Every structure is written in C-alpha cells, then in structure tokens.
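Notes on consecutive records. When two proteins share a document, each keeps its own sequence and its own token line. Never mix them. Below: protein one.
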Amino acid sequence: MNFVLPEIDLGAIAPQLWLTATAILVLMVQAFVPLVTSRSLALLSIIGSLLSLVATLGLWGQEAVLFSGMIALDTFSLFFNVVFLLGAILTVLISVEYLEREQIAHGEYFALVLFATVGMMIMAAGVDLIAIFIGLEILSLSLYVLAGFMRQVLRSNESAMKYFLLGAFATGFFLYGIALLYGATGSTNLDRIFLIAGERGGWGNVLVMGGMGLLLVGFGFKVASVPFHMWTPDVYEGAPTPISAFMSTAAKAGAFAAFVRVFLYSLPGLAASWAPLLAGMAVLSMVVGTLLALVQRRNIKRLLAYSSIVHVGYLLLGLLSGGTEGGASVLFYLLAYTFMQVGAFAVVVYLGGQGEDDLSLARFSGVAVRHPVAALAFSLFLLSLAGIPPTAGFVGKFYIFSAAIQAGHIGLAVVGVLTSVVSLYYYLGVIVFMYMRDPVDLPERRPSAALVTALALAVAGTVEMGLFPGSLLDLAQQSVASLLGS
C-alpha cells in the first residue's frame, strides 16, 4: 500500500509556524543561554507573536482547505487569529513584572502561552471535529500547567488540580459527542455532518442529538457557562494573575471560535433542538453570574471571574441569534472583551502584592490618591465591562442585544439589559472604594515599561472600539459571512 502525504502550503499556516518556532526557541534559549532574563524571553515571545500577526494580516482574504480537509484558511479563522495574538501579546506584557515579583521567571511560561495560542488557532481553523479536538487539547494542556505555575503556592496547585480534573471530565463528554456524531453520519468533517445530520431519522437522529448535546456540554465547560462554571472562580483566583486574564479572554475566544463553527456552520439545521438549550445556558449565565458577583467582596479576581460568566451569557445570546449579525456581534464583543478584561487584570497585577494574599476590595481603598493613573484606567475598564458609553463594552453589548431582538429573542435581550444594569452595582463598588475611601498603605513601585505598554494598548483599544466601531464591525461581518457563505 502506498501512502501519499498531502501537499502542505506552509505559507497558509505561517501564523502557527511562527508561534511554534518561537516557543521552541524560547525553550532552547532558556536551557542553553546562561543568565538569560525573563524580559529577554518576553521580548522574544512578543517578536514571534508580532511576526505571526503580520503573517495573519498577509493572508487576509485568502481561502484554502489544508491537511486533507481538516483545517481551513478563511477570514473567520484569521479574524480570530488577531484576537488570540492580541491576547497573547498583552498577557506576555503584563507577565514580565508579575513573574519577577513572584520569583517564578521561567522560560517555559512564555513557551506555554505561545503553545496555547497555537491550539486556539487550530480550534478556530478546524473544519473537522478531530482537528478541533487536537487544538482543544493543546490549549488545555498548556493551561493546566500555567494555572499551577506558582508551584510554591498551595492555592495555585489546588486550582490547577481542580481545572485538570474537571477539564478531563469535560473532554470525555466532548470526545463521546464526537463518537456519536461519527456513528450517526460516518464522518467527523463538519461539511459532511452538515449534509447528513439533518437527513437522518430514527436511531441516526438520536445519535446526532446525543452527540450535539455532549458537544454542548464540552463547549459549555470551556467557555465557563452556567451550569458548567463551578471551576471558574477558584481557578482564576489561584492561577497567576496574567494567566487568569489569558484564560478569560483569548482562551475563551478559542472555545467560542469552535463553538460558532460547529453550531452555526455545521448544525444550523438542528437549531430547533439546540437553541432552547443554548437559551437556557445564556439566561442562567447572565442571572447566576450577576447574583454571585453581587455578593463577592473577598477577592477582586473572583469578582472578575464571576463577572466573566455574565459576559459568557451575552456571547451565548449573540451565538443564539445566529446569522451574520449574531455571529459578527460575538466576534466584535470577544475582541472588545480582550482589551477591557486584560486591562483590568493588568491593573490588578500592578496593585497586587507578592503572593497576592490580599486582593480584597479593601486593598483598593483610596488607590486614586496614591496611583491616580492606575485608578483612572481601572475605572475605564470596569465601566466598559458594565457597558457604559462610549466604551467598547457598550458598543459590543448594543450589537449583541440588537442581533437578539432582530432574531426574535426579545425576552432574552431584556434579561441581558437588566443584568447589565445590575452589574453597575458591583463594578461601581470597586470605583467607590478607589475614589471615596481612605487610602491604605501600598508599597511604592514604578510600573515596568511592559506593563505600561499593555495598559496603554488596552486603554486605546477600549476607547477606539467605543468611539469608532464601524470598521471592526464590518470586518467581523465579513468574517462570519465568509464562514456561512452569506
């Protein structure tokens, strides 16, 4: 038997190749270059990420199917590449000061961030469930290690173990869902599933429904939607703060990329079956996340974790709306959320102490007196997360709710608006602590150039997407249109 290897267009996978090569180079430099600093490794990681970003922009508008129909090069995957790379670059920038302060400056940290980003890219480009699963595992394995990177801190070890056990459990659901869909359709290719799934009756239809439901469970865990959210606050609290930011933005975007491709592209004919489940997850995420955030005062990272569950509800609402408008609102909001959420965590990195034993709201009392710029930036990010105009968060929520109303989900849109209004209470609560309470003694420190750069980029992105959203929304619509063929 002759085995013929498929022809591979290396240029089409240049973004992934640049990141992979950079990650390997970081590991080699760490191993063989004496006295190398974390700043040097961070700079190397950023250069590799920028080269990958340039390669992504250079491929814009091209379309191809690679690796025997496993991977697609299209505008949809390229848009997500930009989101992933921005998230990775911002994460690396806010990690430099944090790693030095916590004395955990190891090169494998940056390599794992890059490998995780490669996994996200594969998930976004996957047009076969096997490819999506491979990307998911690359992402997950990297995050399991990063979540417990502070090996000397018990809380970090506990969070990594919890994330690993629950993640492995969710992966089992995802794999079994793939198996059922394969049994029903005879293929793991999304195009084949699209053609066959809606035509099967009897036991074939039961298998399709079962597989679809199990995939929904797997995706629900990865995006941290209710009722699959239990791991989120503990893992976000115990993980290194930059990794908490990375998990809540870029990693979540990777899961949503696959979510959109599978359900809007491959299973739209079964929307009558999965839409009610998705609607329930969206409502529960918005309501339960809001209620949990309202009573959270112990830790600012837990507050941001609970609030991230609410934002997952908004994103699920956009996904439920379907079509070009609904899908584009998800893409736009994920990009906006990356800027404002990483920016908020960047301020937490700056104001946090070594070991982060105390990240309660009391620690932020009177911050505006000693650190006025940090307080102003944090206020901007929190107001954007709350959806106050003219920020990126307001525009993103406006497009999601508009898409939901156009799709006939008026009740869900009302729930979204109400939870967004209620969220003002816990976001403004942090701002009140910063501006209207007596200051506490915080160690005087100058932020690193990398952290200042990250904050500047996050502020610029949050403001720019709020004031001038048109061009980015057009790109998001083009990306979804290229996926759906509309």
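Protein two starts on the next line and is unrelated to protein one.
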Amino acid sequence: MGDTSNTNWSDETGISGAALYDLRRARRRLDTLSSKPKWDLSDTEDFDCMHYLGDAALEKACRALGMERGQTVVDIGSGFSATGRYLHKRCGVEVTGIELQPEIHQLAETITERNGLAGGVRSVNADFTKLTVDSPVDYIVSFLCILHIPDRDTLFQKAASTLKPGGKIYIEDYFARTALSKEVGDQLRDIVSCPYLPSRDQYIADLRKAGFHNIHFEEVSEEWAKFVHERAVGNRQRGTGEAPLTLFYDTVDALFAGRELGGVCITATKA
C-alpha cells in the first residue's frame, strides 16, 4: 500500500487536538524505556491501547473473523499499532496499520521496531480513504476510529475495494441510540472529535450500499458504559497530571449515561 498526499478529514474533525491524543504521556513512558534493549507488549500498554476492554476486544475480533496465520489485515486508525502487534503475535497475521497523525505513526514504528515485530507489523501514515492499495487483504479491523470520519460512503467503498472477495470487516464504534440533542452533538464534535454519528439502521444501510452483507450489529453500550465510567473515575483519582484524559473520559462517561450514545461491534462480509 502506498502513502497518499494530504489527508482530508483531520481538519474537519480536529482529531489531533482531541484529549485522547495528547502525546506527552506516551513520550514520558518511552523515555523510561530508552535503555531497555528489547521491549514487549506490556511495556507500553498503559498508553498504546486506544480502544475499550483491552486484549479482550482483540480476542473477540480474532474469533469473529476467524483469523489464521499468514493472512493479511488492514487496521484503519491504527494509532500506536498496539492492535497490529497483538494480532500478529496472537494470530500470526500480517498487519498494516493506517494512521492519519504523523507523530503517532512515528511512535508506532519505533515501538514496533523495539518489540522486534517490524517484519509482520507496519504503520503507514496516510488517509485511508485516499490510500492506493497494492493488493487486496483478508480482513479489515477498526477500533474506535470510524467515529472520526463523517464521509461513510467513501470510507466503506474504499474498505470494500481493499478486501478480497468474501473478505470481512470488524468494527468497534459509536452509534446514535436515539436522535442526538444539540448538546450531545456539540460534545461529541468538540471533545471527542466525532462530527457525525449514524443510527443503527443508517449504519447498516451505509455498509450495504458499499457492498457488504451478512452484517452482524451487536450493541455493547452497557458494557462500554461500565468500562468508560471506571476509566473516568481512575483518571480523576490520578489528578491534574491526567487532566486531558480526565476531560475526555468524563465527557464520554456522561454521554453513555445519557443513553443517546451507544457502542457497537460490527462484523460484515464483502459480497
């Protein structure tokens, strides 16, 4: 897969300014590891896991997709490539992560190299919707990234064209359980960098329009609400040093509690 020129949705969503993407915490942790010859996955897990429920979420994706050694995976919005490193070690798949933000991409490459996993995991700094695909892949995964991308038609069409015939996509994402109030919409946009949120029916319709079928839509709102609440409490207890994350998780905690925001795990197959 080749890199593209410039991105087209970072400016729309202001994603680089979202509290979750404050890199000071990551850099502090990497500084403490600088003298360690070889790193392992646990060395950076306190910041590089950017989805909910940790490794359990990745195990769920492995089972849902039926990943096997030697298969190929694209991770949309791969962050620090923690998902790719785990899936490569756990399932033996070859993972290409697509990360929009150059600073996070660079840190991802460093962490993967220091883990000795660069042969099976790589990060590409690009906008997935503009990416040139060299050859189709078996699977696509995306964990809490699609919420940042309002142009679902372009996104899902690109995803379908990236997959082999019969290939599958696994998504963990937000959706609108009810019509969103203006206050909730503003918080999603300004704090979470989520400018658009479809309903269940609209989400499924968007996937079908792009050529996906066998769509399994599993709501996980209550499970995620509990996780986010515990994370919010933990960040408040750590105090002002975690102020950006405290703001982020307090906001998402309140959004889940208000029951307009929902969480979902989706599996779909390319026709």
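For the record: The radius of gyration is 18 Å.
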